[in-house]
Amino acid sequence: MSLKSKLHELKLKYQGKKMAPAFNAFHTFLFSPDETTHAGGTHVKAADDLKRTMNTVIMALIPVLLFSMFNAGYQHYSAINGFPADFSVMNDFLTWDNFWIGIIKVLPLVVVSYGVGLLVEFIFAVIKGHEVEEGYLVTGMLVPLIVPVDTPLWMLAVAVVFGVVIGKEVFGGTGMNILNPALTIRAFLFFAYPTWMSGDKVWVYGARERSEEILAGANVDAISGETILGYLAQNKGAEMTYSVSDMFFGFIPGSVGETSAFLILLGGLFLIYTKIASWRIMVSAVIGSLVMGLIFNQIVDFGWVSESSKFYGLMSFDFWKHLIVGGLAFGIVYMATDPVTGSQTNKGKWFYGFFIGFISVMIRVFNPAYPEGVFLAILLMNVFAPTIDHYVIRGNIKNRMKRLKNATIYPKDSDGKAEELKAETV
Amino acid sequence: MSKDIRIKKGLNINLVGAAEQTTSKAVLSNVYAIQLSDFHGITPKMIVKQGAEVKAGEPLFYNKNIENMLFVSPVSGELVEIERGDRRRILTLKILADKTQEAFAGAALDVEKASKEELKAALLKSGCWPFIKQRPYDVVANPDATPKSIFISGYSSAPLQADLDYVLQGKEKELQAAITALGKLTPGKVHVTVGSSGNSPLATLNGIELHKVSGPHPAGLVGTHISKLDPINKGETVWSVSPQDLVIIGEYLLTGKFNADRVVALAGSSVKAPKYYSTKIGAEISTFLYASGVNEENFRVINGDVLTGTKSKPDGFLGFYNNTVTVIPEGDDYELFGWNKPVFNKISATRALTFSWMQPNKKYELDTNTNGEHRAFVVTGQYEEVFPMDIFPMQLLKACMVKDLDEMEQLGLYEVAPEDFSLTEFICISKQPHQKIIREGLDLLQKEIG
Fold this sequence. Notes:
Chain B: Residues 263-312 form the Na(+)-translocating NADH-quinone reductase subunit A C-terminal domain. By secondary structure, chain A is mainly α.
């Protein structure tokens, strides 16, 4: 008996039972279902379903994940041994040693994120009796890429439970949530465990342990794992040794997957090309961040802030460089474009994206304690997205109302007869 | 002034099995049927009893709400069966056809001289009235209302639909009579649309506002034309008639006889020799289906096109409004890793490892598989790509789902029919039943607001 018919029998056996959603999730993962179109609708359907859509986003994330695994090791060894003198990608970056750090530090984050998140999804699906929905396939991949590499696994697990339950399931599951679940998880971590989420000791594997050893009296050099934005926020931009190409290609410290603007750009182009993510949101968010960056640059040019100002470092940072450091690029491509929590109208997407870019850079500059604003900006705009859509749709309704004024409504024939009868009797 | 319509938003679904332009005469059907599901929202009251002999064009039942609206038999014969469903609701009336057909004599009319009232009465009495559909609500037109304009689409853009240019050849006289009559029923215009590169007999008629349309499906749907030329506002009524039904109306007005003859396209990838058949409304589909032959065991017969038709069977009957019967393979099989492997043999509106965008002219053999499970609305911005009206499709669907009457009205439910949402339903990643949602929304709106 083939696997196909065996699974079909099992499906019939589970039908109507409590565990059916759990079984179906595995079954539909292997085989797309034998369901046919039913009465009252189209008899044929297009090839894409939600699984394919989500899978496309994951495909766009795989290069970023692989890069981040190498980068975890590269940052770790560079922090200990110093940056290699004449850097070559093959010899210094794509090495087994670097990848091994990725396997022991990054892969567990992925496993915990998927394991805990999908468990919650399955439990909810079984309790509520609906199918396991695909939303978490992308969320589960995003979460490990937006946290610092040293995040303890138990923290991540707690945050994932919180994010999936409060961020999504209480609203009714995939498609019903107001806030992006991955960012809800990120925000939970940030506010619950701030010391693990910011500062200069969390972005590179080993930095925290080393500093604890130093405190205990060990005679070793401290590892500095400060991010570029961290340097700038402390007005220490001059101490920074990273070149623009380091920033663009991503050989810098930061959250696990956010560093390589290059691969994120490729992922973004892939998502636009496959028509899965909205190019309107991506383009307008880039415009928004450039505009805000330019405004700050102008303020510096006019001499309105002095060099001693705590905002000087970030305000004087070239406006276009904002896009290649920190999590802005990652947020714009993979998080802002979430169709459920973003604006749903094409016109609304322009405003939504623009303000994400604009506010991200604004938060970055004005919040030196934690110079990363993109996740807060996206969460804020998630909340405003329905309002933006409301006004876009109002515009459409207004046009319809305007048209209504010139409507040609004829009386019903029977009304006319009633008039005639009246006239006769009078 | 005539205005040409060019549609950019849309999607052509090219399928294998277009009907070849030759017409054969179908075998005479023993039994003909009138299916009440064709007349949405109409409660029938029987005029003749089971077992009665009727002539072709003789009334069978009337509309309970509008009593002078009669529905007639397509053939002469004996009313052998009244099939009923739940709560004795009438589903199908079956007529066993006589060997020699007799026509029920009505009165021919001089359309040039007849008044509006005379024409209305004639159409209602003859059984021709149900061919006229109205918007809002997409139901048989209410004869009491005055439409602001009448739309006739002579362009077929739906997949495998009968080519109207072909089936209307030589029917100019009947078409002209019907158009002249319709022109008297509205103070507005009779808008007729034809394909920009076709040679439709409709283009030669007098008393019409002719428009040429081009672009992908839904360029041929009247809903598209109405929204581009004369959108419906609350309180307004627009009527539409399909051209082949105009021929029946025209013939009645000229001769006084209800002639249910119809040329039907038999199409689809499961048909061995897809072509046209001349038959009658209500004929058994098997009378021409097996003449062309079918390719596989497991197929689905559709009364209409693949996007808007109704599911039928080989021993089912040709619908009242249908000029196309499509037969495609059933897709009730699993597919290993169907959700992530590259797809070359299906149509898609995205490029997510689907490659239909590379060959826009390739013809596909689609089956009835849903290609995925039903989900909540997730992806946005895709319906708009194939929806040419000035309406927010997803927002309107959601308003219908939550039964918000104000929103439904404001977002333009009066302007649409379920068929306008057939393309969005086709491409829907969440596999939502758009046409059903819109139908239920329209029913609710009609019930509450009327």
